[in-house]
Each structure stands twice: as C-alpha cells, then as structure tokens.
Specification:
The complex is a heterodimer. Chain A is α/β, with parallel strands linked by helices. Chain A has 16 helices and 19 strands. The longest helix of chain A is centred in the last third of the chain and has 25 residues. Chain A is globular. The relative contact order of chain A is 0.17. In chain B, helix 7 packs across helix 10. The longest helix of chain B is centred in the last third of the chain and has 19 residues. Classes of the chains: A alpha/beta, B alpha+beta. Chains A and B meet through helix 3, helix 4, helix 9, helix 10 and helix 13 of A and helix 1, helix 3, helix 4 and helix 16 of B.
Chain lengths: 561, 368
C-alpha cells in the first residue's frame, strides 16, 4: 500500500502548485491524476492571470473588482488574501520559468480583462494556462526524487476512519486495472470542475466533477453549487472557448442588426463588463430576436490589429480556422454563451481545509469562496495557484503532527466488488453514454443563463430519474487495461451527484445574483439571500443549510458596469 | 447526414490475439472531427475502443493518432479532410496508433517509455544563474515571443511518431525534446546555454542526428516546427558557441555550405573529408579525414562497382554555368550581409498566406 504524508488528487495547476509547495515544505508527497498532468484542463485557461503587480495598481482595487464581480457573494477575507498574495505568486512563477510576455521595457506586460478597473492580466500569448501548467510540470520533474507521480490513476473513493478523519483514497491504475489503497496523512482534492454535467460546455471531457462528488459522498459540504458561469464567447456548434483576451485586446460584440449592443447594457465597460452581465446581455438579444439565425452573436476580432492577433491571439486563430471555418483576422466569428466554470464546489477555508479533518480542496473543485456568484476572467488561474500553494503548505504542516494510520484491506475488497458489479451489469437498461447525453442537454436547457421554478423542477425530476437509470446502466468493456468504459460509468455517477446539487441550489436561491438569474425572482435580495447555500449528504438525502458571507470592507452596492 | 467509415486498428492486450482492423460507420457532418467520429462509435456501438482524449480542441495533446498513415490529432482532423486523404479503395478513414512508441491498447501508446523519457533527457527546467531578482527578470519582449513557438508544444507526440531519424536510431533525442531544449536555449533567463548546447551537440543522438526530413514540421498540429527549433539549436551551437562537436555535425554543415558557395553544386569527394578534417582544401589531409576515408572504402568501392558514381564524376567538382554560380553566391551575400540571423518564427513573422501582401511585407521586414 503506497503511503505518503500528502496525497494530491488531480494534477492541474492547483494540484501541481500544491505538490510543489508540499515537497518544498519537506513532506513526502504524491500526486495522482487520471490523465497525464499536462493533459489537465488548466491548459484551456487562455487569456491570463490577474495580479496587482504594477506600482500604479493596488491589491485593494483588484479585491474590490473581484468582490463586485462576485455580486458580493465572495468571502472578502479570502479575496483579500488572494489579491494580496497575487503579485508575489506571479513573480515566483516568472522566476520558475514561465515565459510571460513583456512590455517594451522588458518588464512583465499586461492586457485588459473583463470586470477589472485596470489592465492587470499577465499572459503568455493566449496559451497562459498551458504555459503555466507545462512550466510547473518542469518543476515537478526537477523534484522527481522527492515526489511520487501516479499518472493515469483514477480515484474511485475517499476513505475516512470511524472518527471521520480522512485516511487516504482508493484508486485504479488505468493501465493495469489494479486497485490500490493510498494511505495519506492529508489528502488534497485538486481535480477540477464539473463542466461535463452540461452539454455543450467549454470544459474538457475529463471535467466530470469527480472530486466534488467524492468529497460530498464522505460528508463534506458543497457550497454555492448553483453558481454556474456561462462564458460569453463560445462557439455555437461545439461550445469551444474563444478567450476573453480577444475582447481584452479590443474585439467587439454585435447583434444581427449590426448594433454594438453592450453599449446599452454596460455603458462604461461595454464588452469588458463581467461575464454574467455580458452573457445575459447576449442571451437577451438572442431571445428577443436580435441574434443571428443560428442563435448567435458576432464577435468581431478584426478590430484588433492583425500583427497583434498573430502574436497574442494565435490560439483562437487556430480554433476559428479548425473548428468554425472562420478566419478571425478577416471576419467576425459567431458565438454564444456557453457553460464554462463552476463557482461553487467543496467548501473550504482560506487554507484549503474542508470540514472533514485531513481533507483539503483547491482550485475549481473547491469553493473558498473567492468567486461568489460570478468569477472574473483571469482569476481562476490565480485561485488555483494561491490556494493550491496554501493547501500544499498547510497539508504538509498537518502531516507532521499526525501518525500514519492503517487502512482496512476489506475496504479495497468492497470497492473491487462494486466495480466488478458495474462491469457485470446486464444489458437491460440504458447505455451510460445515453444517460450522460440527456443529463447535459437537460442542464443546458433548464439550469442555464436564465432559470425559473418550473424549469428547475423539471431539471430535478430528470436528474433524479437519471440517477435511477444510472443504477441499471451498462457498458461494453470488461477488460482491465485502459477500461475507459467502466471509468465513464463511475464518472457518470459523480456527474449526477453534482447535477443534483446544482439544481437544488438553484431552486433554493430565490433571487438573482451573479450567474444565478431567476426570471421569477429578477432582483438581488441582500436581506434574505446574502448568504451561502451549503449542501451536504451525511449518508442520506441532500440537506441544505446556510452560512454567512464574510464582509470585511466592502458593503454590498448596486452593481453596474 | 453523410456516412463515414473509420477503419480502426484494434489491439486488446488481454485477448492474446494479434492486432486487427475493425470498421465503424458513423453519421456525422463532414466538418466534425475524426475524434468525434471515434467517440460516436464508442458511445453508440462499442465502448471497448481505447483512445486518450480530453479537450476536443487541440489544446491538451491527448489524442495523437495516425490517420491514413500520418500522425495527427484526431480532434483537429475533419472527417471530410480525412476522407480526402484516404488511400484505401473503399474510402475508409484509416486510424491507427502513433509510431515509434509501443502500443498499450488500440490507439493508446506508451508515451512514458519514449516521449517523456526523451523530454527528461534535455534537463527540462529553467537553470538561472544565481539568485532571482527581487522583481521579474528584465528580458526583451521579442525573446519571450520567440520562445512562445516552442512553448506552444502540447506534448502530443505526433512529431515523435513520424520522426524518420528515430525510426532508424531509437536513441535520437527527437523533435519534441529538442524543441523543448530550444525553449531554454532561447530563454535569456537560462544560465546554462553553453552547457546545454555542448551536451546536445556532443551527444551522437543529439541535434546532429536529425536528417531534415521535415516530417515533424508536417506532423505538428501546433506550428511548433520542431525541425526549425533543432536548426536554431545547431546555429546557436555552431555560430554562437563555436562548438566543433565530435560527431562532425558542425564541420559537416560548414563544409556543405562552403562547397555550394564555391561550386554551386555539391562536391561529394570533398564533403566527407572536410566534414572530418575541417572546412578547407587541406581538410582531407587531416588524420581524422584519413581514418574516415579508410572507414568508407568498402562503401566507396561498392558504389563504384554498382556504377552509382564514376571515379572522375566524384573526384571533380560539378560545374554549373558562371551566371548561375553568381546567382547562388548572391544569395549567400544577401544572407550573410544581414545583421541578425534570419529566424523563422510563427509568432513573429506570421504565417504566409497566398496572395496576402500584408504578410509578405511583414516577412520581408523581419528578415531584413
């Protein structure tokens, strides 16, 4: 049985940053991921990472923009920490080797981003997430003697002892099918979001809410799950992302009448209002018949000088050409709002600790909450790195105070029986892929930019039916080597748990705030709903409770851009 | 909706059977990707098909496969485009695992055994000199844009798959790892340029093991152009650090270019001696050249016997008309008179589009 001080599940930016920190703090560390680390979805974060590093900027300004962006649902103590520590984090990444693009003086260059009062987004062309991810992986390779890497291992369950302390996890070696108990004094979940609950989504196929569901199943509460971000610029057909960096560089949005409609919705920031505002505006234009025939809006990137596009937006030139047949340097590209990010997740404190002792979470899987009702662009990379590092450091410290505890072998046998049971299911029910498809379409229809009671009731009914059907769903592959089929069945279970929590949160929050817009409750209602919705499942049905939002220095105000 | 037939090479390691081909027919629009085709077959027909994939948008680098015999990302290849490239009589799109790497299952190859091992070979992390500055390193904007081309690599392994040198010499460090090496050599913050270049030039499986076949450039889905990065490593090693490697790589390149400059065509009898003995008429009298000559005698004899060369044809330089030679030499003068080395870089130069005057001007501007 592999035993480590700190076991990190997920090897995107949060996981890798946690591993880097835990190793440097002297902990025996392992990082485990269902894909090779550089395949992680952090790759897709194109535009950049925010920090008030410029002498004219201030962390307070960054923090206020974030608080306002969150529609006052973000916890201000956590936001203060993130924004204060951001500049040092950027410098550390730069020293590590990230090839941030420079300004004319050779200093770190910035670009503008949505919802920000200053240009404070640091970037590597439009492959910022990829550059960060690959450079951090370089650092993990450098630390190979002190870091165990389990690449292409799939976690099936977290394991707690009778006192509710996290003891480790059970994982399947995808390459051999072997199941192993991983013992750890601290476990950090860094396994990303749950975008695959929706169809379409900008998220990769691996974003199936694994960590969110694993934590939920062992009793950790989830928070603000209803807060699902729709990104304003995704390709109509397949949901692929066109970075906000395009608008940051000067691209504009037009409706079918040729009107730059954002001037009506956000007279000051126009296209660079926060994402919930822009997505809602687009959806309104489309719903009121001013979109294009295919239900889209035009994003005109030709406003950006061609040389600048080729240098700084190369990736979307490729995406436009390869996936939409559009040369973005010459003509507008058709986009619409699409599911992109989950602000909610496993509830943690500012050190990444969940209420389950020994269990941490960081990155999109977690909800600290720094994003509240709506995340600002280029704050997600920052969130992963700041809270990944903080979780890694605290987990290493926690591990020093704890003995290694044994895990019962019987737990492994039970898990094996469960997996064998999935493989052995009769072909009576539906295919796993069919259930996943219906789930995604249902969520995108009823739990999207605009929501109401009737639609959410319908969504809940469908999700609960799919949960039943999932129990009898079947797969084809009975092998051990790379049996992706059985992993898909387990992921479907994770996704359904996430979906149920998302719908329950959306039903519960009877107001409109950030990404949650209820047409039947169109106003923000601070008196009743300036609070987090926590969902937990202690062995039984989901239970909803509330927790307060931490306000330090910014009282809620009306939010305009 | 059109129908496409995917002919997938299956290998199920637990079955004990050899690899075999299996056809799947899917109904999808032609601009949908081969990956969507495979995933549709997997979802509706056969969940046992193995393929790594995640982002679907050519960012994560998971779905490298061979389509109609050439390495590509399945997600970035349209079905109709793949059909056009099909050489099969029945119009099947042939999908098989990447080359140069052992197959684990179906379209899944063991990248750890080859690709990642080679990446680790080039010390793939920044080695700055001394302590970092208090703030950021101050470096030119152009330098960071320049290395962005190799940073754009997503480690998909397509170039490794189709590398002809690696097929012959499995030890070859290879296109992906060498492109990664350029990411450090081109980075002004790295303090070990000389050590890195010496290491890669002296290694028999290093930068001079590439044979310019261009396969990696064609295979790369991200415009990294690994071969160009290898050539830039060579120029840095030979021109900037004057590394005369023990593989005779640098001398060979110099002999090549000066023979063409002087004669307009290659002079084979001089090429190898000079590559070993040094780039001048007297190179062939150096001991190293003598040893090489003795070493090569059997192949020379064979070539003569098989009438591949005639003794006089090989020993005398080939002649071209004077005005042609003058034109060749003009090219040399033009390139050598430039202050900066001409570097091809996607991010700086932009791609060349036919009939696009704007870009053509830009290309000329950056080469001047």
């Amino acid at each position: 049985m592999p035993a480590h001080d700190v076991l990190i599940i997920g090897a995107g930016l949060a996981g890798q940053r946690a591993a880097y920190a835990a190793v440097d703090a002297g902990a025996s560390t392992a990082i485990l991921s269902k894909v090779h680390p550089v395949r992680s979805h952090s790759n897709a974060a194109a535009g950049g990472i925010n920090a008030a590093l410029n002498p004219e900027d201030s962390w307070e300004s960054h923090a206020f923009d974030t608080v306002k962006g969150s529609d006052y649902l973000g916890d201000q103590d956590a936001i203060e920490i993130m924004c204060r520590e951001a500049p040092q984090e950027i410098l550390e990444l730069e020293h590590m080797g990230v090839t941030f693009h420079r300004n004319e003086e050779g200093l770190l260059g910035t670009r503008a981003f949505g919802g920000a009062s200053q240009a404070r987004t640091y970037y590597v062309a439009d492959i910022t997430g990829q550059a960060l991810l690959h450079v951090l992986y370089e650092q993990l390779l450098k630390r190979h003697e002190n870091l165990a890497r389990y690449e292409e291992w799939f976690v099936t369950s977290l394991v707690l002892d009778d006192d509710g302390q996290c003891l480790g996890a059970i994982a399947r070696d995808i390459r051999t099918g072997a199941l192993e108990l991983f013992s750890a004094k601290a476990v950090i979940l860094a396994s990303g979001g749950a975008g695959q609950v929706y169809k379409p989504t900008t998220n990769a196929l691996i974003c199936t809410g694994d960590g969110i569901a694993q934590a939920y199943r062992v009793g950790a509460p989830l928070m603000d799950m209803e807060m699902i971000q729709y990104h304003p610029t995704t390709l109509a057909e397949n949901g692929f992302l066109i970075t906000e960096g395009a608008r940051g560089e000067g691209a504009q949005l037009f409706n079918a009448d040729g009107e730059r409609f954002m001037e009506r919705y956000a007279p000051n920031k126009v296209e660079l209002a926060s994402r919930d505002v822009v997505s809602r505006a687009e959806q309104t234009e489309i719903n009121e018949g001013r979109g294009f025939e295919d239900g889209t809006i035009a994003l005109d990137i030709t406003k950006v000088p061609r040389k600048r596009i080729l240098e700084a937006l190369r990736e979307i030139v490729n995406i436009g050409r390869d996936f939409a047949g559009t040369d973005i340097t010459r003509e507008p590209i058709h986009i619409r709002p699409g599911q992109h990010y989950i602000m909610g997740g496993v509830k943690t404190d500012v050190l990444g600790r969940t209420p389950v002792p020994g269990l941490y979470a960081a990155g999109e899987v977690a909800c600290v909450s720094v994003h509240g009702g709506n995340r600002l662009g280029a704050n997600s990379l920052l969130d992963t790195l700041i809270f990944g590092r903080r979780a890694g450091e605290d987990a290493a410290a926690h591990a020093r105070t704890k003995p290694q505890r044994p895990m019962a072998q019987s737990r492994l046998d039970d898990e094996q029986r469960w997996i064998d049971g999935i493989i052995a299911r009769e072909r009576g029910g539906r295919r796993v892929s069919a259930i996943k498809d219906e789930l995604g379409r249902t969520m995108n229809e009823y739990v999207a930019v605009f929501r109401d009671q009737a639609g959410l009731d319908k969504a809940l009914e469908v999700v609960r039916r799919l949960k039943e059907e999932e129990q009898a769903s079947y797969i084809d592959d009975s092998g051990t080597v790379f049996n992706q089929d059985v992993l898909g069945a387990i992921e479907l279970g994770y996704m359904l748990d996430c979906a149920e929590a998302i719908v329950l949160g959306a039903l519960e929050r009877r107001e409109s705030r950030g990404a949650q817009y209820r047409t039947d409750y169109p106003e923000r209602n601070d008196e009743d709903w300036l609070k987090h919705i926590d969902i937990s499942r202690n062995g039984g049905d989901p239970e909803l409770t509330y927790s307060p939002v931490t306000i330090t220095q910014w009282e809620p105000q009306e939010r305009t851009y | 909706m059109p129908e496409f037939t995917l002919k997938i090479r299956r290998f199920l390691p637990e079955s004990g059977e050899a690899a075999y081909w299996q056809d799947y027919t899917v109904d999808l629009e032609g601009h949908r990707s081969v990956l969507e085709g495979i995933l549709t077959a997997k979802a509706d027909q056969d969940g046992t098909i193995g393929i790594r994939c995640s982002c679907r948008a050519a960012i994560c680098g998971s779905c490298g496969v061979r389509i109609n015999g050439r390495a590509a990302l399945a997600c970035k290849t349209h079905l109709e485009e793949a059909l056009e490239g099909s050489e099969s009589e029945d119009g099947e799109i042939v999908v098989e695992p990447m080359g140069n790497m052992p197959v684990i299952k179906d379209l899944i190859v063991d990248m750890d055994a080859v690709h990642w091992k080679k990446i680790q070979r080039v010390t793939p992390w920044l080695l700055p000199e001394g302590d970092p500055p208090e703030r950021e390193y101050v470096v030119p904007h152009e330098a960071m844009v320049d290395v962005t081309q190799s940073m754009a690599c997503i480690q998909c392994g397509a170039c490794v798959s189709d590398c002809l040198s690696m097929e012959v010499d499995p030890d070859f460090i290879g296109p992906a790892a060498l492109a990664k090496a350029y990411r450090f050599v081109g980075d002004p913050r790295d303090g070990q340029h000389s050590e890195r270049l010496n290491d890669l030039a002296e290694d028999p499986a290093g930068i001079y093991d590439c044979t310019h076949c261009f396969n990696c450039i064609e295979a790369c889905p991200k415009g990294v152009a690994p071969m160009n990065q290898i050539m830039r490593l060579r120029r840095a090693a030979g021109d900037d650090y004057e590394i005369n490697d023990r593989n005779n790589g640098n001398r060979h390149e110099r002999a090549f270019t000066s023979l063409i400059r002087d004669n307009g065509l290659l002079w084979e009898a001089e090429l190898l001696p000079r590559s070993y003995g040094g780039d001048s008429f007297f190179g062939k009298f150096a001991p190293a050249a003598g040893l090489e000559l003795v070493d090569s005698l059997p192949s020379i004899t064979r070539a003569v016997l098989r009438r591949k060369v005639t003794p006089m044809g090989a020993l005398k330089p080939h002649k071209i008309p004077k005005e042609d030679l003058a034109q060749v030499q003009q090219i040399y003068e033009k390139i050598e008179s430039q202050d900066d080395r001409f570097e091809l870089n996607l991010y700086i130069v932009g791609e060349e589009v036919e009939g696009d005057t704007e870009v053509a001007v830009e290309t000329e501007g950056s080469s001047a």
